[in-house]
Amino acid sequence: MFLFDMDGTLIDSNGIWKNVDREFLARRGLPYTHAYYEGVAHTIFPLAAKFTKEFCHLPESCEEIMAEWMELAQDMYAHVSVKPGVRAYLKQCRAEGRRMAVVTSSVPEHCHTALKNLDLEKYFERIIFAQQLGLEKKQPELWLAAAKETNVRPEDCTIFDDSLAACWGARAAKMRVVGVHDGFFAQDEKEMRAFCDVYIKSFEELLWLPEQKAKRK
Asked: How far apart are CA 4 and CA 74, in angstroms?
């Protein structure tokens, strides 16, 4: 079973949340700092809102914070682009008979919007939302739950993710890990290269060469 992250792995969307965070903080006269980034970059929506409320000492409720984020993101997911090589690689995996699912920390509405508009939903037998499980991707329990939901042993799963924290969680669950480059997590590249089973700059690196395609026909 191949388990794919969405933001920053399948689609070029990490910048959306950086822009949302900057605008959200700017409305309150607050700076966008590395400490804030670390608090919200690797977690699910409700926990990011809880962190934001406490870190920024905001009077708004977590629900109000999340609603404002949704308003700021608006239609951005309807216009996001697919990352290089993704569509061809998913088509290749389907030709190989691979089972595939998405495991994402994204909000369900945004996820469905992006995958539907990019015509990528058809490649996946299901989408597993960390938010609905109440777990973060750095937790091996999230990946164990994903394996259980797809009726596959964890050790028979390979995950593709741009986040080092998510890769740690999956490895702790005994899954094979493919690190995917994204500029949003560029500072982690050296560590990801050392930690992951495979590290790719682009899914184009995983596509069959012409002679390999000929042999498979």
From this structure: 24
Model confidence, pTM:
0.84
d(CA 1, CA 15) in angstroms, rounded, equals 28
Q: What is the maximum span of the chain, computed from C-alpha positions, in angstroms?
A: 63
Length of the chain: 217
Q: pLDDT, tens digit, for every residue of 137-151?
A: 999 999 999 999 999
Give dist(CA 110, CA 77) in Å, integer. 6
Distance CA 144, CA 170 (A): 8
Give yes or no for a contact between 100 and 1, defined as CB atoms under 8 angstroms apart.
yes
Q: Report d(CA 56, CA 140) in Å as an integer.
A: 29
Mean pLDDT of the chain: 92
Rounded alpha-carbon distances, angstroms, from residue 203 to 61, 71, 182, 185: 40, 32, 12, 17
Angle among Cα 41, 43, 44 to the nearest 5 degrees reads 125
SS3 111: helix
Q: Is the pLDDT of residue 186 over 90?
A: no
Measured over the CA atoms of residue 162, residue 115, residue 105 and residue 132, the dihedral's sign is negative
Tokens of 122: 């058809």
Q: Which tokens hold the place of 161?
A: 């993710």
Evaluate whether 36 touches 21 at the Cβ level (below 8 Å): yes
